[in-house]
Amino acid sequence: MITFDDTFRRQLHDLFVWRRDVRRFRPDPLPAGTLEGLIEIACLSPSVGLSQPWRFVIVDDKARRQAVIEDFKACNADALRSYSGERAARYASLKLAGLEEAPGHLAVFAEKATDIGHGLGRATIPETTEYSVVAAICSMWLAARAEGIGLGWVSILNPARMHDILSVPETWKFMGYLCLGYPMAEFDSPELERAGWECRRATADFITRR
Amino acid sequence: MITFDDTFRRQLHDLFVWRRDVRRFRPDPLPAGTLEGLIEIACLSPSVGLSQPWRFVIVDDKARRQAVIEDFKACNADALRSYSGERAARYASLKLAGLEEAPGHLAVFAEKATDIGHGLGRATIPETTEYSVVAAICSMWLAARAEGIGLGWVSILNPARMHDILSVPETWKFMGYLCLGYPMAEFDSPELERAGWECRRATADFITRR
């Protein structure tokens, strides 16, 4: 039986504190096999009924990358139009994705039609398929950060467009588009990095006892 | 800037390999404050637009626990009826939750109506709210395992019943019910623990390059 000690637990806590959604990347390429290695780790994640519904598409093709960038720009412009005044100015000032600079592009999908697991645990909450894929992304995120690699999860994209651009099966649900690379800068305090659009932290306020 | 070394990365990999959905718990209580500590760690997770939509309900009340157990039994019986023959026999033999024995019961919800983050990142994919809560559960799961505490995520429950039983706001979406406690047994090999309903592992087969 494997156990973990206080030193590891302290470092694991540091990892949680310092994991970030990275949007500014250095242009250096990632070592060959980096994305595949992170995908292997992602595949160790929990999944409903062991259905392992995660599907990964490494996007190397320049034209497809450019199409994703164009879609992001369109969706982001739409989002900006939904804000006004001070908040619009604030939104416009944010850098919300590192798609142009990130050396690694990885699209992640959930296979809704998988028969692996024979539907176990999915009857009452079918979204557990998507939740399993989120678990995979989160494992990858932590593993990347432990290797000094930044990850940014881009959700400001049109899922239907991602299907078209990446030519994936109809039964795959778009979950997110991940940018990976070495981060441009790190701060001395995690709170400095957090300060931005919204830095209120929700902790014990939201624990309810019944 | 904080960095991590090979020793930590190896242990982190072990943690991913050995994290399990635990369904057999020893009856020993968890030390006071354990659940609150794990919730604090969960709150370090990524969330869309920093919206932190996770909501936690510690369920100590005996009558409510019993009502959850009854709902699980009903949903599990429904699920069993959906299988036939060999597969039904196999399903019936599985222990799918440790609700009766687990000393810690924690229900987790997603606040769909939160204004924190002002909708940032949620316009194109509103489910990113739920995905943020999954991220929180996954952090908690790893942190628990690092402390030698097992966690089992129960999804064989009726979300509407969970609302009634736990009297939570209408805008909270039920995400999962977590059983926590010290695991009854650990095996020498993670694959031994995996062998069960489905032990096929999906890894590089599902990497597609475009």
Automatic annotation (TrEMBL), chains A, B:
Molecular functions (GO terms): 5,6-dimethylbenzimidazole synthase activity
Domain Nitroreductase: 18-182
EC main group: oxidoreductase
EC numbers, comma separated: 1.13.11.79
Entry-linked InterPro entries: BluB (IPR012825), Nitroreductase (IPR029479), Nitroreductase-like (IPR000415), Nitroreductase/BluB (IPR050627)
Alphabetized UniProt keyword annotations: Oxidoreductase
Domain of life: Bacteria
Keyword Oxidoreductase attributed: yes
Name of the protein in its database record: 5,6-dimethylbenzimidazole synthase
